[in-house]
Amino acid sequence: MKRTPALLVAPVAALALTLTACSGSGSSDHDGPVELSFWHGYTEADGDVLQQIVEDFNAAHEGEITISTQVNPWDVIDDTFLPALSADNGPEIVAMPAERLPVYADRGAFVDLDDFYADDEATPDLNAGALDMVTVDGTAYGVPTGFVPLTMFYNQSLFDAAGVAVPTTWDEWVAAAQALTVDEDGDGTPEQYGLALADHATVGNGVWPSLFYGNGGAIVEDGQAVIDSPENAETLEFWHDAITAGKISPTGVDGVSGDGLFSSGRVAMYIGGPWMATVSEENGIDYGIAPIPAGPEEQAASAIGVSMALTRQADQAQQQAAQEFFSYFLSREESVAWALGSGWPPLRTDVAADEVDENPVVAALTEQAELGRPLLPGVVNSTDVLTAVDDLTQRAMAGEPVDDLLAQAQTAIQAALDD
Amino acid sequence: MTTAHAAGPRKRAYRAPAPLGGRPDRSLQRTRTGGRRNRTALAFLAPALIIMAVFVAWPMVSALQLSFTDASGFGQAEWVGLDNYARIFTDADIRDAVVNTVVYALLFTPTAVVVALALALLLTNDRLPLRGLFRTSLFLPFIISLAVAALAWSYLIDPQVGLLHYWLRGIGIDLGNVLQDPTLAMPAVALVAVWKNFGFYMVIFMAGLQEIPGSLYEAAKMDGAGAWSRFRHITLPMLSNTMAFVLIFAMIAALQAFDQIYVMTGGGPYGNTQTVVMEIYESGFRKLELGFASALSYVLLLATLVLSVVQFVFFGRREKES
User: Fold this and answer.
1) Chain B residues touching chain A at CB-CB below 8 Å
2) How many contacts does A have with B, using Cβ atoms within 8 A?
3) Which of A11, A104, A391 lies closest to B270 in CB terms?
4) Residues 6+ apart with CB under 8 A from B68
5) Which range marks the domain in which residue B18 is found?
6) Where are the beta strands (DSSP E) in A41-192?
7) Which of the two ends of chain A, N or C, has the fewest CB atoms closer than 10 A to its terminal CB?
8) Residue A253 per-residue DSSP state
9) Which residues form a coiled coil (chain A) (predicted)?
10) Same domain, B309 and B260
11) Which pLDDT score, from 0 to 100, does residue A312 have?
12) Is the per-residue pLDDT at A343 higher than 70?
């Protein structure tokens, strides 16, 4: 039987291929340096700086620790991280949007880092809000890599042309937006809007939380839903009136289309994250940065956070090596380098704005850092909470009665918290 | 290859797949070389079967297992019995998603089938010039990925930068922000799927149409039957096998709606395009409730199976009657 072996080759080869595809995780059972893989979603200039930090760390730990990085964009990191984790084929270190950390921590994906933080020499004083976002039920499960309050980006040329000053309160904000809204052909659809106020899937999900804080409201406090408050009702009505009466903002905008509107010069003011600086420069927009104008009660902004964590897949040696990397990353020198390169303000509280003033965006954001509030810290089911907030704001801006919407949101959010 | 061994010679010879709704061809069963053909066939099928077993059958079995646990995808999972299944039938979000999926299926399936059939009729008409060109270009959308098509369409209908939007406004139609409009979002995502899939159904219909003997039409013409009555009494009945195939395929595609919704609306506005598969994705990958997501997948699988069998039986009976 000459044929039989030939016929069997194909299936066996197919099987072998499948099996090899499943292996290949970075473990440290053998001698030689401890190997760590590190997944993150920093794809722009920040990615290059992070790569440099990792390479410097590897060089300083030649023969002991080798970290290899892999980029997985933030919006799809769950799609690759979860299957990898379930196949025991994931990274030892993973960075993810900070509000995604609690659900993984709650399900036991991460190593608790309380001991790491207990060592004062290894860990400097970090921004309190950033630390809140890595803490679940009082236990720390991660190290912040970024924490930045949302800020207002404005188009300097449009401001100059209209002779408008940068607003500092909500009333000034609406007035400025009205002055900057232009409907030349009078068809009721402005060609230029004063503001792009996203009503769902906003930048870092933080636009509406920021506005709620401004009027003394909140979404979740001490594990309880507090969204159904007269303050929040006022906030929604104020902005609904401003948008429908003055047409100062297009409706149905989300974070992505908002970025596009500002970078195409079609809106004068926009709430965004630090990357808007680069995006504006690339598109030739002469921009300025200011804090989100103060609400009637408070000046506060929801922060965008990114945290990195150590997965349960890491063995003892890998855990130690990873903690060594965390300390290195948080060291004064690397913190400053990371801030300057990433455009995000430094996480250490002992780095002042003038130390990072060679990057004016970072200096401006550092001054605003204390306005930043963590988004849903420790909330495991942030997915459903954020969906409920999106539902609420989108319907409210479409003109549905605010009181009913708030009551529904309250129920939905409380249910998500009680899960 | 224990299966090849156990099957034994001659008893289970290779059989051509039965035509949909038709009878299996018995003549092949009597082939003398049955045993050898059997082994050879299995050896040739083995690569595909192994891939199916590893990537389809095994995941299905594991998913079934997962569906009775509170698995999050990693770490420990506890047996929770039928809790996940019970939750599916009580969860208000799931109920909304089922309603949305049915609405989507009702928008997608008939539109796709009617458009495909109409174009197939047009393209099998000898009087139409450049038929080859039309056939190819109408089939093209089918070969691109739905996610890519969805991205392209979101740009086209974007209210700020969309070309389609701009043109429509030129002739006085303002659609507004289609994907954020609670009534228009669902038809929009369904239409993108129609645009992407009708080419495939069209080709199937064309194959079916070409099998109808021309003599039937000639005879009908002689008897004075008009175009409509030829379509109604010859084309449609003769196409019923093809129609069953296309309808079942279109319905399965509709029940699995995900890609373009994920890309274009993310389930919004306010959950109006949140389908069952979107719910499965969100439970599994966002909330790390893989056990629940698996249970939901199984319920969807069973629902699809039941609906397919119902259609199959329905068309099988109609064919018998005619």
Assistant:
1) 1, 40, 43-44, 46-47, 50-51, 54-55, 72-76, 158-161, 177, 179-182, 266, 268-271, 282, 284-288, 290
2) 94
3) A391
4) B79, B80, B81, B82, B84, B291, B295
5) 2-63
6) 65-71, 93-97, 135-136, 139-140, 143-149, 151-155
7) N
8) -
9) none
10) yes
11) 92
12) yes
CA pair distance A22, B51, nearest whole angstrom: 14
Model confidence at A32, pLDDT cuts 50, 70, 90, reads confident
- A89 interface with B at CB cutoff 8 Å: no
Asked if A383 and A103 touch (Cβ cutoff 8 Å), the reply is yes
Of the candidates B44, B75, B182, the beta carbon closest to that of A108 is on B75
Q: Which two tokens stand for residue A294?
A: 């103060």
Query: How far, rounded to the nearest angstrom, does the alpha carbon of residue A254 sit from its chain's CA centroid?
Result: 15
Question: Right CATH number for A151-291+381-418 from 3.90.1300.10, 6.10.140.1670, 1.10.220.30, 3.40.190.10?
Answer: 3.40.190.10
For domain A30-147+304-373, give the fold. D-Maltodextrin-Binding Protein; domain 2 (3.40.190)
| Residue-wise pLDDT tens digits, B124-164 | 888 888 888 999 999 999 999 999 999 999 989 888 778 88
Residue B207: how many other CB atoms lie within 10 Å: 12
A250 touches chain B (CB under 8 A): yes
The tokens of A10 are what? 């194909």
Question: Looking at the 3D structure of chain B, how many domains does it have?
Answer: 2
Cβ A292 vs Cβ A84: under 8 Å: no
Question: Which residues, numbered 262 to 301 in chain A, qualify as contacts with chain B under a Cβ-Cβ cut-off of 8 Å?
Answer: 264, 266
The 10s digit of each residue's pLDDT in B53-97 is: 999 999 999 999 999 999 887 878 889 989 999 999 998 889 999
Between CA B271 and CA A391 the distance in angstroms is 8
> Which residue, among A1, A7, A9, A187, would best test binding to B if mutated, counting the most B CBs under 10 Å from its CB?
A7
Q: Does A6 touch chain B (CB under 8 A)?
A: no
Mean pLDDT over the full length of chain A: 88
Set of chain B residues whose Cβ sits within 8 Å of the Cβ of A250: 159-160, 177
* Least Cα separation, residue B271 to chain A (angstroms): 8
Residue with tokens 């069997």: A8
Q: ipTM value of the model? A: 0.79
State the pLDDT confidence band at B17, using cuts at 50, 70 and 90. low
pLDDT greater at residue B268 or residue B212 = B212
**Which residues of chain B make contact with A243, given a CB cutoff of 8 A?**
none
Q: Are A159 and A268 in contact (CB under 8 A)?
A: yes
A11 to B76: CB separation less than 8 angstroms, yes or no:
no
Q: Is residue B218 part of a domain?
A: no
Nearest to A7 among B43, B75, B285 (CB): B43
> Among residues 176-215 of chain A, which lie with CB inside 8 Å of chain B?
200-201
Instruction: Note the maximum CA span of chain A.
Output: 91
How far off is chain A from B73, nearest CA to CA, in Å? 5
Residue found by looking up tokens 């300390």 in the block = A327
